[in-house]
Amino acid sequence: MKLNKRTTTIILWAVSIGLLAGMVISFTPGLSMIGAQQTARGPVQMTVNGLNIHELDVQQARSNALYASVTEGEVGADLQRLMVDQLVRQAVLQQAASRINVSSGEVRRAVNDFREERGVAGGRNDRAYQQLIASAGFTDQTFRDYLRDQLRIAKFEERLVGDVTVTDEEVEAFYQSHLSAYQTEERVSARQIVVDDEALAQELRKRAIAGEGFAALAREHSLDLADRDGAVGAASGETQPRPVGRPALPTPVANAAFALRGAGITDVIPSNNRYYVVMVEEYHPATPRPFEEVAEAVREDALNAKKTGIVEAELDRLREEANVTFPAGSPLSFDNPVLAEVNGVEIRAVDLDSALYTNPQIQQALSPQTADLIVGLFKPTVLSQVIDTEVAYQAAESLGVPLLGTRAGIAQAALDYVGRDATASDEEIVEFYEMNRAAFVLPAEAVATRVDFGSQAAATAFREALLNGSDVETAAAEQGGTVAELGLLKPGQTEPEIDAALFAADAFEALPGGALQVSDILVLQTEVAAEPAADAEAADDAAGDGAVSEAPTTREAFVVLVAERIPERVRPLEDVRAQVEAAVLAQKRQAARSAWLAEQRAAADIVEYGASGAAFEVPATETVTEPGTDAAASEDAADETPAEGEAQ
């Protein structure tokens, strides 16, 4: 059975995961020992089933940023053990595939495909092609050797999985344990106002927040969809919005609209020299699609998962049976003690190394300065996760459904299967909302104008004029005030004195005929440039004497704020119900998974080994951590805490 391109790609990906354990590693030719044309490869540093791995191969492996990040101490020893293990895995895979024939024509087609994909096809691009592969340490010949090896490996994998099929029961179980992979996209029903003037956009947003009809504002002012009352997704002649996904809006506008996770009005969002205000009328969260709609995709994914598991198992077998030796004088070794056992299945040091150092966050933080923190804090936590992964993998069979994939994949699938049927009642939704009201608070905001005066008398006269009905510009001009538009502000976005006046005090009076308010007079200290010298000659004398120019001085400024202030408010439950329900479901799924895992762990025979080799049983009451940091678990965790809305 010949695999299609997608299947082959997925299986190759699986092998890469097995070899590199998820690491993002730039390829070095030495990792696949293809530099047969090289003559100065140095002494042999280890042998795998009779295949020599030379000093140059090891040096090239060490050039990987991960292995070079820490070279001393416990972390350095861990990384060397992981590097040796990956070299061995690469060697046994290459050996297993070495007898498979790959013709020169197949290699030539692979080279041509590569050149086509990289834009260096054809004889006129030979130099560009040579430069491209040279940047990865290849010559044309060694690159062809590398591709030949990869084609052999692909054929080897095809032979392993070529006759594999999946049953209807396996497909159904895969769907039930991967519901998050078959969801509809999240959507919103929304209206928008699009204008080319930011001040106008701010004004229209204020009017909408104050309760003026958004559809009418869009019809009168919007440059886009005005004939549809701003209804996003509406067809010509319609005025009601249709649910749309993120692509229906410019990216920054979509980010703001979807961040509301419910009904509300966004801030003014600039995009492509226009200014958007979006009113979300309803948020439609992602929901699982019916099995009938996705059955074909599920079957293909289940088949690929099954093949991936077969490839991983074979690679593990080859690695376990490999005969690895280190000649005298080699700096390499492979001390791989047993760290724990789960029902007799050993978890060794390299298993922990792989889980720990292939974590992207740990890789990013890895350095000699953080090594002690990783050993003292992260190692025990990750070891607990590795143990939980093994517990969940072994217990998956007790669920009575055929789960597919790698060991880690089956462990996570088992947990997701356990939590698949979580539901959220109305009472639970209301309770969660009431207990987490702070998560739904929208911050106070104000659209403010600042007017500075040189005397308190002028500032007082300005306030009185405003209270008597004068406009800001006229009253400020009459008293010699300096007007500065501060625009839309939220707490913490301006200097402390202004911030406190707007959001932490109530020293404002309402102005007649509108929503504007005027503040009490604020006395602020402002910097003033030093007075210039009386004449040029005096300035020259000062310079000649080596005098230092005077530092700026401060003076009092009398400031009055004119603002429309919107107080902090809590989004009503009806606006955020979908968000709250998703959070409740995430919590209940997490609780179901944790309870099941704790039950399985309590029933398992688990032993951990200390550094001295002494064993102790892990208490059944130990805090349970779920295995791994899978994307599905990360999404659930993120959903547990509702995102704060940007605005109403």
Low-confidence stretches: 1-39, 611-648
Helix content: 40-55%
Number of helices: 23
CATH T-level topology of the largest domain: Triger factor/SurA peptide-binding fold
Q: Report the end-to-end length measured between terminal Cα atoms.
A: 58 Å
The figure for the number of domains is: 4
Q: What is the number of beta strands?
A: 19
Q: Give the class from helix and strand content and strand pairing.
A: alpha+beta
Radius of gyration: 34 Å
The coarse overall form would be elongated
Just name the CATH architecture of the largest domain: Orthogonal Bundle
Beta-strand percent range: 15-25%
CATH first level of the largest domain:
Mainly Alpha
Overall average residue pLDDT: 86
Characterize the main sheet: 6 strands, antiparallel
